[in-house]
Task: inverse folding
């Protein structure tokens, strides 16, 4: 997905003279062509995320479309107040593109984990949140949103689904319809969920935009009132959206996500999936529990 | 741009009266901080910055960012004096439906470039604007004002590094050095510190209009310019000058009478 990000940005730097790319001293080699072709608009800004986000707001005030790229905790958590005040409060457009969340950099430890990113970004009024599950989806969603004058957070992942889906910003995609329950799955977990629930008569809704949340698609596809949310970030992040979408209807929600504790083990992301209950077997078990509850 | 300016005590006193009255009316406002920077803002807007009060977002304007947003009453007074909005708006200072608040909102107040208040944000925003203007090959300039307490923030020093690295000769930063931050963290010789970061630095009396004019007038170099303005917090009212009790305080009726007597 990072290669796709480079390709998408290279094209947009060419097509749109308002785009300015700011790198937090990562991905510099990958963007070598952009540095050569657009030296004024491709800047390795350094490791100073707070000033970078404010600086990006200054660029936005001058009519540019800033794109800031760094590792998730440093984009979201280090510079959170700058995102809140300089972009959301001032109503400026900009794009914030992370890598490494939730525990894609598992072996680097907790300082480089960021399962809180979506929860935090969804708390900011006006912030759009996008979690693509495939490189082509990133390209589609980025092009649909990057210039819409809103701040937007894009969460790139090291692992993605095998095939891309027909996605549209702000819309969920219905993967299959069934009666027993409705499963909401976010971005890169789609393949895992499809593997997990094979043979079960249930609805699968695929979400790549999390703010704004597509309430209509959920409301139209939840006849049971039972919802399982499979989210690759802190569990419970989407609870409010689900409840608000199914207003006046009784709803039962099962959250399958990253538990709210520090993940102090190292290893590989796949090992953390198993430990967090985000592997296919554990998801199947919880889905079946929900169906029979 | 002018090369000479007379001290304008009557204009300054008139604006200070407006500030004191607005604060007393609502029981809100950082009067002393406003008095610390009022001379600087007046000289900038009357004699240095290229502005368009009838078209505040004119592309050819110079940009000014009040990074220490709690000095907003000074900015409002100068903007009103320059004709950006009617002085009558002061009557609604800090009102629920008013446009003028304790910290400035760029989406409400004509002439305000950035919504500031959280310290350490405006300076790096100014850096971004200066980079943006250079990409656009614009001759407009960016001027930013920070406080010495604000210079505790790490983002100020991040911005200081970026400004020099990117050779932002179109950026001037004025540091309102009233030493109110000393009770927490003594910053010492800021001239030396910013010079060490690579800035062109000068030091002035921040209440002397001719010195402000000379220091803030662009020199055309490739290096950003830092003006260390030595100021007195609460300048012009004896009980307020360098008195921490007045940092965020509105006058009682008796205090108001005393303040106004000193401003006539």
Result:
């Amino acid at each position: 997905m990072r290669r796709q990000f480079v390709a998408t940005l290279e094209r947009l730097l060419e097509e749109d003279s308002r785009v300015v790319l700011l790198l937090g001293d990562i991905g510099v080699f990958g963007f070598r062509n952009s540095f050569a072709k657009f030296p004024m608009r491709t800047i390795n800004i350094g490791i100073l995320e707070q000033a970078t986000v404010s600086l990006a707001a200054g660029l936005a005030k001058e009519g540019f479309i800033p794109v800031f790229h760094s590792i998730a905790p440093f984009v979201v958590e280090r510079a959170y107040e700058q995102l809140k005040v300089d972009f959301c409060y001032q109503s400026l457009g900009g794009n914030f593109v992370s890598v490494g969340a939730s525990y894609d950099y598992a072996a680097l430890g907790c300082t480089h984990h960021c399962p809180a990113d979506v929860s935090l970004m969804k708390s900011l009024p006006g912030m759009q949140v996008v979690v693509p599950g495939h490189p082509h989806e990133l390209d589609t969603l980025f092009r649909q949103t990057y210039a819409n004058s809103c701040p937007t957070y894009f969460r790139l992942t090291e692992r993605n689904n095998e095939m891309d889906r027909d996605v549209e910003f702000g819309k969920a995609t219905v993967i299959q319809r069934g009666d027993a329950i409705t499963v909401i799955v976010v971005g890169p977990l789609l393949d895992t969920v499809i593997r997990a629930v094979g043979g079960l008569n249930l609805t699968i809704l695929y979400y790549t935009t999390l703010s704004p949340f597509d309430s209509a698609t959920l409301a139209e596809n939840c006849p049971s009132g039972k919802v399982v949310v499979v989210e690759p970030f802190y569990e419970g992040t989407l609870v409010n959206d689900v409840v608000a979408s199914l207003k006046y209807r009784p709803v039962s929600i099962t959250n399958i996500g990253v538990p709210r504790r520090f993940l102090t083990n190292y290893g590989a992301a796949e090992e953390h999936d198993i430990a967090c209950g985000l592997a296919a077997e554990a998801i199947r078990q919880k889905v079946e529990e929900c169906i029979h509850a | 741009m002018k090369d000479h300016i007379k001290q304008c005590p009557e204009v300054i006193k008139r604006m200070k009266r407006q500030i004191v009255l607005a604060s007393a009316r609502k029981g809100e406002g950082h009067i002393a901080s406003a008095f610390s920077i009022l001379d600087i803002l007046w000289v900038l807007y009357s004699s240095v910055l290229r502005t368009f009060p009838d078209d505040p977002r004119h592309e050819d304007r110079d940009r000014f960012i009040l990074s220490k947003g709690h000095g907003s009453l000074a900015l409002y007074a100068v903007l009103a004096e320059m004709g950006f909005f009617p002085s009558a708006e002061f009557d609604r200072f800090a009102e629920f439906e008013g446009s003028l608040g304790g910290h400035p909102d760029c989406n409400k107040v004509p002439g305000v470039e950035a919504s500031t208040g959280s310290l350490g944000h405006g300076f790096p925003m100014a850096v971004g604007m200066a980079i943006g203007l250079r990409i656009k090959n614009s001759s407009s300039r960016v001027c930013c004002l920070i406080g010495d307490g604000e210079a505790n923030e790490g983002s100020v020093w991040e911005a200081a590094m970026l400004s020099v690295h990117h050779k932002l000769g179109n950026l001037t930063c004025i540091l309102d050095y009233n030493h109110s931050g000393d009770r927490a963290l003594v910053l010492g010789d800021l001239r030396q510190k910013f010079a060490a970061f690579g800035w062109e630095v000068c030091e002035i009396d921040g209440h002397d209009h001719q010195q402000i004019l000379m220091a803030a007038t662009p020199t055309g170099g490739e290096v950003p310019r830092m003006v260390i303005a030595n100021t007195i917090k609460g300048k012009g009212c004896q009980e307020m000058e360098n008195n921490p009790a007045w940092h965020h305080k509105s006058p009682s009726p008796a205090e108001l009478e005393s303040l106004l007597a000193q401003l006539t």
